[in-house]
Every structure is written in C-alpha cells, then in structure tokens.
Fold this protein.
Amino acid sequence: MSGAAPVAADGATLVYLPGIAGHPASSPALDALGDAGWHVVVPRIPGLDGRSGFWAPDDYLGWLAVVWDALDATGALPCPVVGASLGGMLAADLAVFRPEAVTASVLLAPFGIFDESHPGLDLYAVPTAERMGHLFAKGVPEPFVERFAELGPEDGPVARYLCDAAAASLLWPLGDRGHAGRLHRLTCPALALWGELDELLPVATSQAWADRGVPVEVVAGAGHLLEWDEPDGVAGRLVEFLASVIR
Amino acid sequence: MLQTVVDFRQLLGERRTVKLLWFHLMPYPELPEDFNRKHRSVWVDVDPALFDPEVMAACYERYIDQLVFAEQCGFDGICINEHHGNGYGLMPSPNVIGSVLASRTTRAAITVLGNSVALYDPPIRVAEEMAMLDLLSHGRLISGFPVGTSMDTAYAYSVNPASLRQKYREGVDLVLKAWTATEPFAFNGRFTQMRYVNVLPRPLQRPHPPIWIPGGGSVETWDYCSTNDYVYGALSYYGHLMAKETVGGYWRTVEENGKDANPYRLAFLQFIGVADTDRDAYRLYKEPAEYFFNRSLHVYPGYADAPGYLTEASARARFASRVRATVRAKQARHDLTWDEMLEKGYVVIGSPDTVRETLEDVAKTFNCGHLLTMLQFGNMSDELTRHNSKLFGEMVAPGLRGLFADAEDHWWPTNAVAA
C-alpha cells in the first residue's frame, strides 16, 4: 500500500458510488481526495438514501437504469468513477457498458462475482442490529452507528430499513451479477483495492477479478468498507493511481 | 368409484355455521432436548444430520392418519401448509399430502394453506396441481396462497425479498386467470412471461376454489384480502391475546374498503389442549408446547426478516408496535416457560367447558367464522393428539356450532360438507 503524497487534481471531478450501507456521511478518505484537489460527486442513489416511497426495480437491469439516471443527473460523467462494495459492482458495469462515460475505474471490494469456495459472511443473515459491525475491521465509524438518526425515532429506523432493503435487492442472494462473463470489456484504466480482513468478500475472492485483468491490491488491516478503515492509505493510493492514468 | 358431485350447501345449510378446521404442521418430533442451546436455528441452516428419514417416514404415516382421524372427529376441514428447509414443519409440498388426503377422506375441506406462489416459476404449476387436488377431492379444495415466511422464501428459496410480494401478487393473478379463462392466452407479467397459458385440467369448483390468504400481520395483506374478497387467515402462533392487534387491523381495513363484516371473511389459528379437567390439561400439554415454542420455533433472528421482506408500510407499523416487539424479543429468547405460554394465551388449555368458553369468546370477539385448531403441536404423541382431537370434536365443537348462523359462508368449498 503506497502512502504517496497527494497530487493536485486541479478541481477535476470524480464520482463516488457508495457501498452496501449507503452514504451517511462523507468519509475521511473522500475528504482527503478533496484535499488533493479532486471534486468528489456522490450521486443520490434512490433506495440507498432511505427516502420513503422507493420501490426496488424488478431486476438488475432495472437497477442499472435507476443508477445511470442518477449518475447522468450529476452531469459529472465522463470522469473517473470510484465504487465501493455494491457501488463497485455498479461502477464496473458502468465502465463495461458505457465505456465513454468512465475515464478510470477504481473498485473497492466490489460485489459482482461470487466464489463458492470462499462464500464469506451473508450479511443479510445477520440480525439487523449486528450488521454494521461486520463491515469494518476497526470499529463502526460514528456515521454508521445509527444511520438516519437525524430523521427521528420514528422515521430513522424506517429509513435504515429501506436503505438496507434497497441494497439487499441489488445483491440478493449472492451478489453475483455475472461480471465474470463481461469484465473483458472493461477497457479503461482500472484498479481494485481489497480489505485484508473483509468478512463479506474474503480477500481470496479478489483473484477472480485479477484473473480477468483488473489489478488487485490488498489493504492491510481493513474490512469490507476499506475506505473507512484505512482512509489515508486508500485515499493516497487513489490519488496516486488517478494521477498516473488521467492526463 | 367416481362420486356424484352434489352441491350439499342447500341440503345441509353448512354455509351458516362456524367452521372448525384441524391444522397439521407436521413437525419433526425428535429434535434434541438441548436443541435451542446448541443449534442456532430450526430453519434454513439447521443441521440435516438431526433428521432421521426413518423417523420422518413414520411421522408422515402417523400425521396423515391423524388428519383422516380429524374428519372422523367431526372437523369441517383439515389443513396443511408449505415450509422449506426446517424442522418446524416438514411439508415442503403440501400438494403431495393433499392428494393422499383427498383419497382418504370424503367430506372435509382439503385446506391447503397453501402454496407460496412466488416460489414457482412459472406459477401455473400451482394452478395445475391445485386443480388436480380439487378434482381428486371432488370439489373440496380450499386454495391458500401465502406470501411465505422470510425463512422459506428469501433464504430457503433465495427469492429476492424486495420483489417477493409483487411476484406473489402477479402469480396469484396468473393462477386465477389460468383457472377461469375461456381460451388460451398470453401473459406478459413483470416476472412471468408466457406465450401460451392453457392450464388443464381446470378445477371442479367454478369459477375456482375458495381463496384464503394466510398472513402474519402485514397491512397490505389485510387490504389485499378485503379488496378481493379473499378470506384472511391470521396465522400467528402466539395465540388470541397477541392476535387482537392483527385481527383488529384487518377488520378496520375491511370496513375502510366498504365490505361487510361477514365473520367468514376471517380464519384464525389457535393452539389448543383439551383434557378431562383443567389440571389434566396443564399436565398433559406442557411438554409438547414447550417443545414447539422452544425448539420447533427456534428461528435465528437473522432469518426472520430479510431486508425488503416487509413493505415500507408494514415496516413502519412493526417499528411502531410495542406488542410485536415484545413477541419478537420473546421469540429470540427461546426459553418460554409453560406458565408464560398460558398467561399470554399462546395455548388455550383446559377441560372441554373451559376451552369452549374461551374459544366462544375468541370467536365472538374476533368475529371469526373459521377457527383453525392446532391440536397436534411439537412432539405430542399420537395417543394424546387423538385424545385431544376426540375430546374437542365430541365435547367442545357442539357448543360452538351455533355461532354465526346469521351469516353465509361464501368461502367454503362447493362439496365439502360440514359436520
């Protein structure tokens, strides 16, 4: 893991697609990217925002349409896209299906390929109150302790439920959306970072991505949402990688 | 020999009396005594080594005999249902059991509660098998369509919980259309697309067997049942006291939808233990009840509510319900005492008079015309099951028969004859 000093990006834009627990707050890693000169855009993904009234699409193709609408609404594309967890799965498919929209792809422990030999933890078979503890190796960061608490004691739990329901609908039952069969079409510069202590996607599962041409680097001491466990290391490597591939 | 199909309704007037149905879960009866301490769940990932096929073969024979015996005891219907990957109810295909019951009984409603339509692809398989059951039973089928538990659907069958209910609704619509369409048709659903739908054979009952929808308290199911004039089956295993909230919500929804308060719109399940005296009942039913609630119902909380299994409205209602929170906390403990079960009404026990008084009060309070009795539960022996059923049939049922004679049961099979 490189801890290279940030390189000024002069306000260039990158998109961040959040992970399995939504985006309750900007992470220190994203803040570090901002400090390095990147303008980080986080699209509002319906469902993951916990807002009332959302119905999950019937299938993954329907989900892609929802996410692409959200991405296009930001006006940020084309640009580098960083996706974490299920956001990494979506980011990979954005690069596969819309190569003109993605100038570089950074995937942080992406779902998309299930390895029967290393099934990992089924987060949705964990009681709700215990789930967050399995996403991090270094304790649950404050924003995840009680997501949507700002909505109050009645709406907050409902928003948490809706966020988890939306994420689960994207991943059910195994988080495999057939990426193994199409990653050869991911042609932009790409990098995958993987938490050494990821419980959901054990680091051994990253080999499937490496075998399909996506370089994988392991982040020591990090869990599934590695950008929260190792913000400096992840941000530093991101800045370094993006500086090397974005001209 | 082919029976003559006769509409007995007008002859016997069975459409104007409370219906008493005998429900079997077909539990595995030999889970170890320390099961709830050494195993995390009876459902989904339960250790298959705990299940002896020889034991279960004997159970099927015994359980089917008990269901046949229930008809002989005067019950109006016999009930079976569908569950997967568990030791709580070993009936993944109730239609298989139903076909046996159709040939071994002559009068009782074959009540399949039911087939979880969203688990079948395409769902016309359900239309086909239920039509066969209706024919085999000569028009005695009640067709139940549950959404299915979180454990069965999202985990044991891996159906995406977020789309489960829409898939289920679409499946029921397809089944009903397949039963009633006058010519082959194409079906372009969100989850099922078929160029040719032409289900054969069709059910004997026209336009189709009565539709009952078992539910556990989902607010959408109340609306679904009342809007479409289906029977709502309140299938909590926590008894009449806990069910007040659910039943009350259902009847409020019926009223809001402008429907009448016909008591036969509702079915309600209650665990029951009848003995010669209250004291005998306390002694006899302790072990099977403790087995059921602490072993058969030992469900790991992680499987109980897949994210998305509840709609937003139901999630909101659940988070706001202190009653349900209490139940769920209790369920998670799996160490209920017998006295707690009785105090909270999970099981109604006593002499025939005691049980009749309680059930009469429940039926009247709930305005419930279909009482589903659970007279075998847990590891209850065959002898005690028959004793329980016989006492109920002979000593309890007659005192309930006069209930709801002023209403007509529009949801009873054409050729099922009440006792």
In short: The radius of gyration of chain B is 20 Å. The CA atoms of residues 99 and 133 of chain B lie 6 Å apart. The interface with chain A takes residues 44, 154-155, 158, 160-163, 166, 190-191, 300-303, 305-308, 310, 312, 315-316, 319-320 of chain B (CB under 8 Å). The longest strand of chain B covers residues 266-274.
